[in-house]
Amino acid sequence: MPGLQVRKVLITGANGQLGHELVRATIASGHEVVATSHETLDITDKSAVDAVITESRPDVVIHAAAWTAVDACESDPEKALLVNGTATKYIADAAHTVGAHVVYISTDYVFDGSKASAYDEGDATNPQSVYGSSKLAGERALGETDAIVRISWVCGFYGANMVKTILRLAEQPQLKFVDDQIGNPTFADDAAEMIVRLAIEKRPGTWHVTNQGEVSWYEFAREVLIAGGFDADKVAPIKTHELQPPRPAKRPFNSVLNNASLKNAGIALLPDFREPLARLVSQIQRNERG
Questions:
Q1: Of 28, 51, 33, 30, which Cα lies nearest the Cα of 41?
Q2: What 3-state class would DSSP assign to 84?
Q3: How far is 130 from 127, CA to CA, in rounded Å?
Q4: CA dihedral (107, 110, 111, 113) positive or negative
Q5: How many domains does the chain contain in total?
Q6: What is the C-alpha to C-alpha distance for residues 95 and 87, in angstroms, rounded to an integer?
Q7: Are residues 195 and 201 in contact, defined by beta-carbon separation less than 8 angstroms?
Q8: Active site residue 131
Q9: What backbone torsions phi and psi does residue 181 show, to the nearest 5 degrees?
Q10: pLDDT the model gives residue 2
Q11: Which of 15, 33, 190, 278 is deepest in the core (most CB within 10 A)?
Q12: Number of H helices, E strands in the chain
């Protein structure tokens, strides 16, 4: 396998929801990790990026650092483009200088959400938000032999996410979630395992990596409550246009990502999202009980 010569992996955004799991999965795979975070590397500082990558000389860079505050990006498009687009070029250029393969973590937001079926890796991009546009700029900063991994609706043990929000609201008499946005809930630990595999094998191209099973946010909220032992019938469906206050950034109505590249490569897909959901809810509840 081409990945046999990989010894050292540099991971940006190592303190993030996905980053924590990427570090764990890379170490578990027997590879050396150089973990950088916002505190240790300002990815918008080209000289700092050059220095860290030149000094560490990784074989692979997994670039997970990003500004993912979707609504905040709308009010500061320059910052969004700098962090998610320009900084990605800094990372890629520095990596290529030392001969490293780059894996860039992207998003379903690069699509406009209007397709009637799941999005394939080669479908035309058409972002409808500043965040989506900035992440697409990052995709375009990569080299031909690098990899783009698009993920969606990410949840995990670290950081804020929808599973934690729903569990926090679980005792309320009613919860309202939209039923006109659909996607693949994806769990950080599962996604990290696959991303690390693709990285170590230095597989180029674009990959959609999600857990299987598509749901609306309304249906997902019900599944979270069921996993947590709560009454799912307290969730009421609403439409996106009924959200109060309305969200600044436009969300894709269809965020379902077909994992066609994995299928074509003969790689087993991640399990149905309900499996890691049960695991995560149990982990969160155990942690809360101390």
A1: 51
A2: helix
A3: 8
A4: positive
A5: 1
A6: 12
A7: no
A8: yes
A9: -120, 125
A10: 45
A11: 190
A12: 11, 12
Q: At 38, which amino acid appears?
A: H
* Residue pair 181/252 in contact by the 8 Å Cβ criterion: yes
Does a structural domain hold residue 284?
A: no
Does the predicted TM-score (pTM) go above 0.85? yes
Q: Among residues 90, 104, 119, 131, which one is catalytic?
A: 131
Cα–Cα separations (whole angstroms), residue 255 to 44, 51, 120, 159, 212 = 29, 37, 11, 22, 13
Is residue 240 in some structural domain? no
- Scanning the structure block, which residue is given the tokens 């799912």? 232
- The range of the structural domain enclosing residue 263 comes to 2-161+184-213+255-271
Please count the other Cβ atoms lying within 10 Å of the Cβ belonging to residue 86.
18
Which neighbouring-strand residues pair with 237? 177
**Tens of pLDDT along 189-209?**
999 999 999 999 999 999 999
Distance CA 84, CA 76 (A): 12
Write down the mean pLDDT value for the chain.
96
Sign of the torsion angle spanned by Cα atoms 21, 24, 29, 33: positive
Distance between CA atoms of 192 and 21, rounded to whole angstroms? 6
Q: How far is CA 218 from CA 177, 197, 282, in A?
A: 5, 32, 21
The candidate with the shortest Cα–Cα distance to 183, out of 205, 159, 147, 155, is 155
pLDDT in tens, 121-175: 999 999 999 999 999 999 999 999 999 999 999 999 998 899 999 999 999 999 9
205 - beta bridge partners?
147
- Which of helix, strand or coil describes residue 38? coil
Using the 8-state DSSP alphabet, how is residue 250 labeled? P
